[in-house]
Amino acid sequence: MHKYKLKIEYDGSNFVGWQKQNNGISIQESIEQAIFELTGEKTIVFGAGRTDAGVHALGQVAHFDLKKNFNIDKVRDGLNHHLRPNPIAILKVENASDSFHARFSAKQRTYEYLITNRRAPLTIKKNKSWSIFKTIELEKMRYEANFFIGKHDLQAFRSIDCQSNTSIKTIDEIKISKNNENLNISISAKSFLHSQVRIMVGTLVEIGKGKITESITQIIKSKDRTRAGVTAPAHGLYLVKVNY
């Protein structure tokens, strides 16, 4: 068998998410179909991050196995040809070792959440950024975000649909930057709970608006989902990088 590693970019707006489901077209299914059309082989594509419906990627990583050996440039260009007109692009293809697994070999994943903080509605960035009209206190958000860093029980930031065996996660880094009306929240960790990043972002935004007065430390200690903020919309979230 020959193993191929992919770096993928996609607009998740009209997909049900990364993983194959019965209620619509997924990123995984679209790539598997393109592989079949290119190679004649049916295979399973394993992704590093199971992004939800509406979530985008700039640096998703995946792998798949083929019986036949193909030139990596041919794989990249051929898959891009068969993926059209889907908003999915194979940025890079590499040969991978037998031991490589896109999901289980990953050491760190980085997600970015984009917010546009202005009074006017979105046009170009519609479905690409979370539009927030009210003024946000950036420094308050930055101060509280620091308390996410480290190993914590993040039960309060866990979706009801989460199937993880444990709610204990370690946040390696969180950065909040602003350029005019554009706010970017970057969060890095080895793994995340279902909707964790979006709940973290929603909580920080509500702290920035003054709607939540409790500290992040208090919310974490409470282990109570109702004490955290709203789940930020999927369309502002991007999987940007996976480290191995």
Description of the molecule:
It is built from five helices and ten strands, in the order βαββαβββαβββααβ. Helix 1 (27-39) packs across helix 2 (72-83) and helix 3 packs across helix 4. Strands 1, 2, 3, 4, 5, 6, 7, 8, 9 and 10 form a ten-stranded mixed beta sheet that branches. The chain is α+β, with helices and mostly antiparallel strands and 244 residues long. The mean pLDDT is 96. The chain folds into two domains: 2-96, Pseudouridine synthase I, catalytic domain, N-terminal subdomain (Alpha-Beta Plaits), CATH 3.30.70; 108-243, Pseudouridine synthase I, catalytic domain, C-terminal subdomain (Alpha-Beta Plaits, 2-Layer Sandwich). 22% of the residues lie in helices and 31% in strands.
Quickly list its features.
10 strands, alpha+beta, 2 domains, globular, 244 residues, ten-stranded mixed β-sheet
Helix tally equals: 5
Give the SSE string: EHEEHEEEHEEEHHE
Count of DSSP strands: 10
- Total domains: 2
CATH superfamily label of the largest domain:
Pseudouridine synthase I, catalytic domain, C-terminal subdomain
What is the CATH topology classification name of the largest domain?
Alpha-Beta Plaits
CATH architecture of the largest domain: 2-Layer Sandwich
Portion in beta strands: 25-35%
CATH class of the largest domain: Alpha Beta
Rg from Cα? 19 Å
Instruction: Specify the helix fraction band.
Output: 10-25%
Query: Main sheet?
Result: 10 strands, mixed
- Average pLDDT works out at 96
Shape: globular
Unreliable spans: none
